[in-house]
Amino acid sequence: MSVLFAILLFSFLILIHELGHFVAAKLSGVQVNEFSMFMGPALWKKQKGETLYSLRLIPIGGYCAMEGEDGGSDNPRSFDKAAWWKRLIILVAGAAMNFLVGVLLMMLISLPVQRIVVPVISSFEEYATLNGENGLQVGDEILKVDGERLYTQSDLSLILSLNPGDTHDLVVKRDGQKVALSNLRMEKHPVTDENGNTQMRFGMNFTITDLDLGGKLRYGWMQSVDSVRLVRLSLKMLFTGQAGLSDMSGPVGIVQQMSIVAEESPNRFAALLNLLYFGGFIAINLAVMNLLPIPALDGGRVFCLLVTAAVEGITHKKINPKYEGYIHGTGMLLLLGLMAVIMFKDIFVLFKR
């Protein structure tokens, strides 16, 4: 079921993405020649007005083919003849739709949540050493750790794991005022539970709060913003060498992780919520990644559009669109190559298990 869910999820996200381009193009007066779900030979086609609607055989991808999208059209309603700000809206609309769907999914899975843990310190254990006059105090709300904001309480362990060491910079809200705690020593101590298992803990306990409808929706929004931050942190880890190709996953790896999460869920309802969370996270991830200034992606096209508009506004000379085509063509080949490498890596790991 998780595999089927993953296929339906990717198909839905692609449809929503292309629908964003389609609606923005129609509202901007740009002619859309074809709106297709999936790729390959057509299974179903219907011409309605100037647009051909089709469903194709290979359940991967999809497209919204606009007149003059790659330049060279004399049609006054072609994409390249539209005002630059209209083209910008059309290009961004796909990612915006993905982000909107991701936020809605995050809010949807937050509706059954009755209470959450918030980063407000309620008490300390006797063994704790990070409290005191110059440290944390009961009632402190932790706002930032090492410059990163806490959107949810679970962010604390994530951010601390990214910055090894026992000293950290914290910003807390205390008695309505922001207080900076620089180079605070945060030691963990071994604690044995009733089952005899030893865990390393700070010794601070957080507050549990009930959620009304507004609180649930806000919690879903915070999870959405947190997902955007996770993309940024992941990219930072790639550029700094903290993560590598082995840590990247494509559709095969994602489906595998979704299957594991579903199988480890205590019941079907929890499995559904976990899969919907995956869906929301992937939707937001796709939205952010798609807007990066990388050739062949919408973000790369937006970057070229802004540069072209600026140059043409200054020089009053048109730039031949074939040069942009060369850039995006090269970028597409590189992206497809990277996707192929990641896919084969995921398949190798799958069979190795």
Brief write-up:
This protein is α+β, with helices and mostly antiparallel strands and 353 residues long.
In words, what does this structure look like?
By secondary structure, this protein is an alpha+beta fold. The protein contains eight helices and ten strands. A four-stranded antiparallel beta sheet has the order 5-4-6-7, with helices on one face. Strands 1-2 form a two-stranded antiparallel ribbon. Helix 4 crosses helix 6, helix 5 packs antiparallel against helix 6 and helix 5 crosses helix 8. The longest helix is centred in the last third of the chain and has 32 residues. The protein starts with a helix and ends with a helix. The model has no long low-confidence stretch (mean pLDDT 88).
List strands and helices in order, with pairings.
Layout: H1 2-27, E1 32-48, E2 51-66, H2 84-110, E3 115-124, E4 141-145, E5 148-149, H3 155-162, E6 167-174, E7 177-185, E8 189-192, E9 198-201, E10 204-210, H4 213-240, H5 251-264, H6 268-290, H7 298-315, H8 321-352
Helix pairs in contact: 1-2, 2-4, 2-6, 2-7, 4-6, 5-6, 5-8
